[in-house]
Here is the input.
Amino acid sequence: MSTETLTSYAGSFIAGAEHANGGAPLAVTNPANGQVFASVAGASAADVDLAVRAAADSLPAWSSLAVSRRGAVLARACRHVEDHLDELIPLLTREQGKTLRDSRIELTKAVDTLMHYVGLSKALRGAHTPGLDPGVDGYVLRRPLGVVGAIVPWNFPTTLLSNKLAPALIAGNTVVAKPAGTTPLTTLRFAELLSEGGLPDGVFNVVTGSGGEAGDALVRHPLIRKIAFTGSTPVGERIMALCATGVKRVTLELGGSDPMIICDDADLLAAASAASMGRFYNCGQACLAIKRLYVFESVADEVIDAIVGKARRLKVGPGDAEGTQMGPMHTAGGRDELAGQVSRTLATGGSLLVGGEPGCGPDLAADGFFYMPTVVVDPPHDSPMAVEEVFGPALPIWRVRDLDEAIARANASIFGLGSSVWTRDLGRARKAAERIEAGYTWINSRTKVYDELPFGGWKSSGYGKEHGEEALDYYTESKSVVVSSGA
Ligand code: NAD
Here is the structure.
């Protein structure tokens, strides 16, 4: 087994330069072997203050550029990141655990999202209301909010950052981002590359550190005008409460427990394939993932057999090994939590058809955080896997009578992020899309997020939207202006 060499990092990227943080160091671990390979100094409240002030200082010049000019600057910086994807991909795999293929998909998507908003920078138009009164016209101005704090989790460190950074920068804001304490490295290099590519100093800053110290300091900072947060529901609720002071704007992309409904007339093999991909992609550690599957009784055996077959065939291994389809979980703690959730569920009922154990074998380091693809059928509807978010590669499946029961079960959750329905009857599909309480419904489609469409959770899954032109509304204030010609 290889031994990792320990590298130390200063920890922040502020005003276009590395900044040595004064807070407690954070260990960065390779999830495939459990070894610490980097130590990153965490940001103290004083480091966060420096970053926010750098962002505030850069705001007047950045926000006064023409929108299309901001787009052109960001496009050039983006191309520089794109030229370095081959450097970023293994780094993301090493600190996060995902396969090299998934790291490439993630980083390509992160750049695509930035470029999507670069494109919109030439398409933005506003409202004009002529003739409010004789000789009086109205129009609506849109102004940036100011300094935005972006707080991001470890499962998709770069795409979840781009979802915030792109609309924030195009709208004329400046940004201080805080990645998760366990995945700071790709984000730091991403920021450095954007800066080398010409993004002006201070427009995008990164502070590393724990949520309790660096994250909290960012949320409370009086110069922050908005927090864009992706993470768990309990932390999101806390942040929303803190943002009440100063009436800071807030968007929250939180946890989910996405239902998938497979009707008796669906393309069953395609649906099973989408379920497997939707559950096991990124080792099941995605907010949008198939976390509860409801299948009509008459076709349940066929669907379950197909999913179990796929789970058995998935090649689990280190993210950087040839042929690996599913990497380790991100942390030992996350793996233990999932294992506990599966066994607490099985203690209440249901059958374990595959998995339910940590990974072991000649290709898997004993200290890696592996957990085998798991399928549990018909556990009680109030068991942990039914009511809690399952953040790992374990899928509970229930047999249901019909669409009404499936939708009622789907909606019996505090979450409302994504959802999907498989049926050849579009009338049925539309009925389901109207009734399922979630921010997204895919019909006969795998659960892919499009930059073109707004995305955001209902209920405890979040507040506000990312993606789409709508995201720009969450990074601007509008002002009505009335102009009288003096007649
Ligand atoms: P988490 O809430 O623990 O942490 C997310 C981020 O918040 C990290 O950067 C963390 O350091 C920071 N943080 C933690 N406590 C904080 C505090 N008190 N103040 C300020 N910042 C704080 O989430 P996690 O466990 O790292 O990520 C997994 C969760 O994220 C899951 O629930 C998942 O569903 C959710 N998620 C949601 C989406 C979405 O778009 N809806 C996308 C990905 C992940």
Remarks:
- Residues 265 and 423 are 5 Å apart (CA to CA).
